[in-house]
Structure formats: C-alpha cells, structure tokens
C-alpha cells in the first residue's frame, strides 16, 4: 500500500517538474523577444535575422594577411568586426559585402576598417 502511494507521489512530482519546465521555456521565449515561425523555429520578434557570431581573430587575420602593418590592420579590423559581426572576404576591397564595416569612420571621417 505504501509503495503505491510513493509511486503516485513520484509521478505527480515528475508531472509538476515537466509543467514548470514548459512554463519556464515559454517565459524565456517571451523575455528575449522570440516568436515561433510556421516550422516551429524561434525567430526574433522584430522579423530581422541576426548575424551569427563570428571568430573576429580568424577573420581579421585572413583580412590583414597581406597588410604591411599587420598589427595596426588587425587592431582596426578587430574593432570593426566586433561592432559589425562581419568582415569582407579577401585581403582588400569587397566592402559592399558588409555595409556596416564599410560605413565606419574615424574622427577625421576617414574609413576606419581596413
């Protein structure tokens, strides 16, 4: 008799735990502003997709590989990469691939990003 009561109690705790997990996940989705699309994937509520986080050290090392002043190039590129989460392909040019990167300027209104 006592064994049946323990099983029932454990079952209720499991159901309660699962219910609390569902509620917590739903409130987390609402807190960070996600909505589910038709396929059930979470997307930002504002409808814009977010760029994935990239490895700025690797991307800037590739971008600055042929620069004459690699450290200066890597420092400027790193700042731009962190802000824009984008580094154009190749060692120069191609800035149309990343408008944020292309539009950053220094205090003297010169292009900031290599």
TrEMBL record:
Assigned protein family: Belongs to the GASA family.
Superkingdom, taxonomy of origin: Eukaryota
Transmembrane segments: none
InterPro entries assigned to the protein according to its UniProt record, in alphabetical order: GASA
Protein name: Gibberellin-regulated protein 9-like isoform X1
Keywords: Signal
Annotated gene: LOC109723335
One Pfam family this sequence matches: GASA
Signal peptide (UniProt feature, chain positions): 1-24
């Amino acid at each position: 008799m006592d064994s049946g009561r323990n099983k029932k109690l454990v079952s209720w705790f499991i159901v309660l735990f699962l219910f609390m997990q569902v509620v917590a996940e739903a409130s987390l989705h609402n807190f960070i502003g996600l909505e589910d699309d038709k396929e059930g994937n979470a997307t930002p509520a504002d409808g814009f997709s977010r760029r994935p986080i990239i490895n700025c050290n690797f991307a800037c090392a590739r971008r600055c590989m042929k620069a004459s002043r690699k450290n200066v190039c890597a420092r400027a590129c790193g700042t731009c990469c962190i802000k824009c989460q984008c580094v154009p392909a190749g060692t120069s040019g191609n800035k149309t691939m990343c408008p944020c990167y292309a539009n950053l300027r220094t205090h003297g209104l010169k292009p900031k990003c290599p």
